[in-house]
Backbone:
Protein backbone atom coordinates (compact mmCIF):
# COMPACT_ATOMS: atom_id res chain seq x y z
CA UNK A 1 0.00 0.00 0.00
CA UNK A 2 1.60 3.26 -1.07
CA UNK A 3 1.64 6.34 1.11
CA UNK A 4 -0.81 8.98 -0.03
CA UNK A 5 1.05 12.06 1.18
CA UNK A 6 4.13 13.70 -0.28
CA UNK A 7 5.84 17.05 -0.44
CA UNK A 8 6.24 18.59 -3.89
CA UNK A 9 8.73 21.32 -4.75
CA UNK A 10 8.49 23.22 -8.02
CA UNK A 11 11.67 25.02 -9.03
CA UNK A 12 10.59 28.12 -10.92
CA UNK A 13 13.96 28.73 -12.52
CA UNK A 14 15.01 31.46 -14.92
CA UNK A 15 16.72 29.83 -17.87
CA UNK A 16 19.95 31.56 -18.87
CA UNK A 17 21.55 31.65 -22.31
CA UNK A 18 24.58 29.97 -20.72
CA UNK A 19 23.63 26.30 -20.39
CA UNK A 20 26.29 25.56 -17.77
CA UNK A 21 25.09 28.40 -15.56
CA UNK A 22 21.49 27.18 -15.81
CA UNK A 23 22.42 23.59 -14.98
CA UNK A 24 24.44 24.66 -11.95
CA UNK A 25 21.56 26.81 -10.73
CA UNK A 26 19.05 24.00 -11.28
CA UNK A 27 21.22 21.61 -9.27
CA UNK A 28 21.38 24.08 -6.38
CA UNK A 29 17.60 24.52 -6.39
CA UNK A 30 16.97 20.77 -6.50
CA UNK A 31 19.35 20.25 -3.58
CA UNK A 32 17.68 23.01 -1.56
CA UNK A 33 14.24 21.53 -2.22
CA UNK A 34 15.41 18.11 -1.06
CA UNK A 35 16.97 19.57 2.08
CA UNK A 36 13.60 21.16 2.88
CA UNK A 37 11.84 17.82 2.74
CA UNK A 38 10.61 17.51 -0.83
CA UNK A 39 9.81 13.98 -1.98
CA UNK A 40 9.18 15.05 -5.57
CA UNK A 41 10.94 17.95 -7.29
CA UNK A 42 9.71 19.41 -10.57
CA UNK A 43 11.46 21.64 -13.12
CA UNK A 44 9.87 23.83 -15.84
CA UNK A 45 9.52 23.32 -19.58
CA UNK A 46 12.80 23.79 -21.50
CA UNK A 47 14.53 24.55 -18.22
CA UNK A 48 18.01 24.12 -19.73
CA UNK A 49 17.34 25.84 -23.08
CA UNK A 50 16.03 29.38 -23.71
CA UNK A 51 12.51 29.13 -25.06
CA UNK A 52 13.06 30.74 -28.45
CA UNK A 53 13.37 29.25 -31.92
CA UNK A 54 16.94 30.46 -32.41
CA UNK A 55 18.11 28.34 -29.45
CA UNK A 56 16.26 25.02 -29.83
CA UNK A 57 18.42 23.37 -32.47
CA UNK A 58 21.64 24.90 -31.17
CA UNK A 59 21.07 23.54 -27.67
CA UNK A 60 19.78 20.23 -29.03
CA UNK A 61 23.06 19.86 -30.94
CA UNK A 62 24.83 19.80 -27.57
CA UNK A 63 22.99 16.55 -26.89
CA UNK A 64 20.34 15.74 -24.32
CA UNK A 65 22.26 12.75 -22.97
CA UNK A 66 24.45 14.79 -20.62
CA UNK A 67 21.42 16.60 -19.23
CA UNK A 68 19.67 13.27 -18.64
CA UNK A 69 22.74 11.96 -16.80
CA UNK A 70 22.87 15.08 -14.66
CA UNK A 71 19.19 14.85 -13.74
CA UNK A 72 19.61 11.17 -12.90
CA UNK A 73 22.48 12.08 -10.58
CA UNK A 74 20.47 14.86 -8.91
CA UNK A 75 17.63 12.42 -8.20
CA UNK A 76 19.94 9.74 -6.79
CA UNK A 77 22.14 12.03 -4.70
CA UNK A 78 19.15 13.82 -3.18
CA UNK A 79 16.96 10.70 -2.88
CA UNK A 80 14.02 12.35 -4.62
CA UNK A 81 11.69 11.66 -7.51
CA UNK A 82 12.65 14.22 -10.16
CA UNK A 83 10.23 15.42 -12.83
CA UNK A 84 12.86 16.91 -15.09
CA UNK A 85 10.85 19.69 -16.69
CA UNK A 86 11.53 19.31 -20.38
CA UNK A 87 14.61 19.50 -22.59
CA UNK A 88 15.25 19.42 -26.34
CA UNK A 89 15.72 15.73 -27.19
CA UNK A 90 16.92 14.35 -30.52
CA UNK A 91 16.27 10.88 -31.88
CA UNK A 92 16.20 9.57 -35.42
CA UNK A 93 16.76 13.01 -36.91
CA UNK A 94 13.73 14.43 -35.04
CA UNK A 95 13.66 17.01 -32.28
CA UNK A 96 11.25 16.56 -29.38
CA UNK A 97 10.22 18.66 -26.37
CA UNK A 98 10.68 15.94 -23.76
CA UNK A 99 10.09 15.45 -20.04
CA UNK A 100 12.22 12.78 -18.34
CA UNK A 101 11.28 11.44 -14.89
CA UNK A 102 13.64 9.70 -12.44
CA UNK A 103 13.10 7.73 -9.23
CA UNK A 104 15.00 8.09 -5.96
CA UNK A 105 17.75 5.80 -7.29
CA UNK A 106 18.21 7.92 -10.38
CA UNK A 107 16.55 5.42 -12.70
CA UNK A 108 14.53 6.84 -15.58
CA UNK A 109 10.91 5.80 -15.03
CA UNK A 110 9.14 7.89 -17.67
CA UNK A 111 9.66 9.94 -20.81
CA UNK A 112 6.91 12.20 -22.12
CA UNK A 113 7.31 13.87 -25.47
CA UNK A 114 5.06 16.92 -25.79
CA UNK A 115 2.06 15.76 -27.83
CA UNK A 116 0.39 19.04 -28.76
CA UNK A 117 2.74 21.62 -30.25
CA UNK A 118 2.35 25.33 -29.57
CA UNK A 119 1.32 26.87 -32.91
CA UNK A 120 -0.43 30.19 -32.32
CA UNK A 121 -0.98 33.51 -34.04
CA UNK A 122 -1.89 36.34 -31.67
CA UNK A 123 -1.57 40.06 -32.42
CA UNK A 124 2.04 40.83 -31.63
CA UNK A 125 3.01 37.19 -31.04
CA UNK A 126 3.29 34.44 -33.62
CA UNK A 127 4.88 31.16 -32.60
CA UNK A 128 5.03 27.87 -34.47
CA UNK A 129 6.64 25.16 -32.37
CA UNK A 130 6.02 22.59 -35.11
CA UNK A 131 8.67 24.33 -37.23
CA UNK A 132 11.24 22.90 -34.83
CA UNK A 133 9.72 19.96 -32.96
CA UNK A 134 7.99 16.71 -33.84
CA UNK A 135 4.97 15.73 -31.71
CA UNK A 136 5.05 12.87 -29.25
CA UNK A 137 2.62 10.00 -29.71
CA UNK A 138 2.29 8.42 -26.28
CA UNK A 139 0.16 9.09 -23.21
CA UNK A 140 2.43 9.04 -20.16
CA UNK A 141 1.41 7.51 -16.84
CA UNK A 142 4.09 6.10 -14.54
CA UNK A 143 4.21 4.28 -11.20
CA UNK A 144 5.73 5.78 -8.06
CA UNK A 145 5.80 4.81 -4.39
CA UNK A 146 2.83 7.19 -3.99
CA UNK A 147 0.79 5.66 -6.81
CA UNK A 148 0.34 6.35 -10.54
CA UNK A 149 1.20 9.81 -11.85
CA UNK A 150 0.85 11.49 -15.23
CA UNK A 151 3.07 13.83 -17.21
CA UNK A 152 2.20 16.42 -19.85
CA UNK A 153 3.98 19.51 -21.20
CA UNK A 154 2.55 23.04 -21.44
CA UNK A 155 0.18 23.18 -24.46
CA UNK A 156 -0.96 19.62 -23.65
CA UNK A 157 -2.94 21.26 -20.84
CA UNK A 158 -5.53 22.55 -23.32
CA UNK A 159 -6.71 19.08 -24.35
CA UNK A 160 -9.09 17.49 -21.82
CA UNK A 161 -9.12 14.20 -23.70
CA UNK A 162 -5.47 13.66 -22.77
CA UNK A 163 -6.15 14.32 -19.09
CA UNK A 164 -9.15 12.01 -19.11
CA UNK A 165 -7.00 9.26 -20.63
CA UNK A 166 -4.36 9.74 -17.92
CA UNK A 167 -7.00 9.73 -15.18
CA UNK A 168 -8.58 6.56 -16.56
CA UNK A 169 -5.14 4.93 -16.50
CA UNK A 170 -4.98 5.70 -12.78
CA UNK A 171 -3.07 8.99 -12.57
CA UNK A 172 -3.92 10.90 -9.40
CA UNK A 173 -1.52 13.80 -9.98
CA UNK A 174 -0.39 15.22 -13.32
CA UNK A 175 2.89 17.11 -13.56
CA UNK A 176 2.95 19.87 -16.16
CA UNK A 177 6.21 21.67 -16.95
CA UNK A 178 5.24 24.80 -18.84
CA UNK A 179 6.05 28.23 -20.24
CA UNK A 180 2.78 30.08 -20.77
CA UNK A 181 3.42 33.62 -22.02
CA UNK A 182 2.27 37.14 -21.21
CA UNK A 183 -0.65 36.88 -23.65
CA UNK A 184 -2.17 33.55 -22.59
CA UNK A 185 -0.81 33.37 -19.05
CA UNK A 186 -3.01 36.03 -17.41
CA UNK A 187 -6.11 34.73 -19.20
CA UNK A 188 -5.76 30.97 -19.25
CA UNK A 189 -2.97 29.57 -17.02
CA UNK A 190 -4.70 29.25 -13.65
CA UNK A 191 -8.08 28.70 -15.28
CA UNK A 192 -6.80 25.78 -17.37
CA UNK A 193 -4.97 24.12 -14.46
CA UNK A 194 -8.11 24.30 -12.33
CA UNK A 195 -10.33 23.07 -15.17
CA UNK A 196 -8.26 19.96 -15.81
CA UNK A 197 -8.04 19.24 -12.09
CA UNK A 198 -11.78 19.46 -11.45
CA UNK A 199 -12.67 17.69 -14.71
CA UNK A 200 -11.04 14.44 -13.62
CA UNK A 201 -10.47 14.92 -9.87
CA UNK A 202 -6.69 14.92 -10.03
CA UNK A 203 -4.00 17.22 -8.71
CA UNK A 204 -2.41 19.27 -11.51
CA UNK A 205 1.01 20.71 -10.76
CA UNK A 206 1.99 23.41 -13.25
CA UNK A 207 5.68 24.28 -12.91
CA UNK A 208 6.53 27.36 -14.96
CA UNK A 209 9.80 29.06 -15.74
CA UNK A 210 10.57 32.37 -14.05
CA UNK A 211 10.24 35.45 -16.21
CA UNK A 212 13.30 36.68 -18.09
CA UNK A 213 12.36 40.31 -18.63
CA UNK A 214 13.44 41.67 -22.00
CA UNK A 215 13.95 38.22 -23.52
CA UNK A 216 12.22 37.52 -26.84
CA UNK A 217 9.77 35.14 -25.11
CA UNK A 218 8.72 36.21 -21.63
CA UNK A 219 7.18 33.51 -19.47
CA UNK A 220 4.17 34.26 -17.28
CA UNK A 221 5.62 32.30 -14.34
CA UNK A 222 3.07 31.83 -11.52
CA UNK A 223 3.71 28.13 -10.88
CA UNK A 224 0.50 26.71 -9.42
CA UNK A 225 -0.95 23.50 -8.00
CA UNK A 226 -4.70 22.87 -8.36
CA UNK A 227 -6.40 20.29 -6.14
CA UNK A 228 -9.00 17.66 -7.22
CA UNK A 229 -11.90 20.04 -6.59
CA UNK A 230 -10.31 22.77 -8.69
CA UNK A 231 -9.10 24.98 -5.85
CA UNK A 232 -5.65 26.58 -5.93
CA UNK A 233 -3.51 24.76 -3.39
CA UNK A 234 -0.55 27.09 -3.84
CA UNK A 235 0.77 29.64 -6.32
CA UNK A 236 3.44 32.33 -6.67
CA UNK A 237 4.48 35.33 -8.76
CA UNK A 238 6.78 35.49 -11.79
CA UNK A 239 10.14 35.63 -9.96
CA UNK A 240 12.68 32.85 -9.55
CA UNK A 241 11.87 30.74 -6.47
CA UNK A 242 10.94 27.32 -5.13
CA UNK A 243 7.24 26.70 -4.47
CA UNK A 244 6.23 23.93 -2.06
CA UNK A 245 2.98 21.97 -1.81
CA UNK A 246 1.99 19.27 0.66
CA UNK A 247 -0.22 16.88 -1.29
CA UNK A 248 -2.57 14.21 0.05
CA UNK A 249 -3.73 11.95 -2.76
CA UNK A 250 -6.66 10.72 -0.67
CA UNK A 251 -8.33 13.97 -1.71
CA UNK A 252 -8.74 12.49 -5.20
CA UNK A 253 -10.86 9.68 -3.74
CA UNK A 254 -12.88 12.12 -1.65
CA UNK A 255 -13.58 14.33 -4.67
CA UNK A 256 -14.69 11.35 -6.76
CA UNK A 257 -17.03 10.20 -3.99
CA UNK A 258 -18.55 13.65 -3.52
CA UNK A 259 -18.87 14.46 -7.23
CA UNK A 260 -18.93 11.07 -9.03
CA UNK A 261 -18.95 12.31 -12.62
CA UNK A 262 -16.97 9.27 -13.73
CA UNK A 263 -19.89 6.99 -12.94
CA UNK A 264 -22.16 8.74 -15.45
CA UNK A 265 -19.72 9.17 -18.32
CA UNK A 266 -21.38 8.29 -21.62
CA UNK A 267 -18.52 6.21 -22.95
CA UNK A 268 -20.85 4.95 -25.68
CA UNK A 269 -21.09 8.50 -27.03
CA UNK A 270 -17.59 9.89 -26.52
CA UNK A 271 -14.99 7.17 -25.97
CA UNK A 272 -11.39 8.05 -25.09
CA UNK A 273 -8.61 5.51 -25.54
CA UNK A 274 -7.07 4.20 -22.34
Residues:
Amino acid sequence: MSESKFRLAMCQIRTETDRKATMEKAERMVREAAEKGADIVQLPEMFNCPYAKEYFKTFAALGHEDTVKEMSRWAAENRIILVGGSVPETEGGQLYNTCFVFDRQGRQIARHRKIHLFDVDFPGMRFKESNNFAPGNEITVFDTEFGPMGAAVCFDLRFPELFRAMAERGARCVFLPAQFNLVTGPKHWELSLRMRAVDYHVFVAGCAAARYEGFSYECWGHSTVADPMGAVLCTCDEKEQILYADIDLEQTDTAKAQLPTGSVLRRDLYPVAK
In short: The chain has a mean pLDDT of 95.
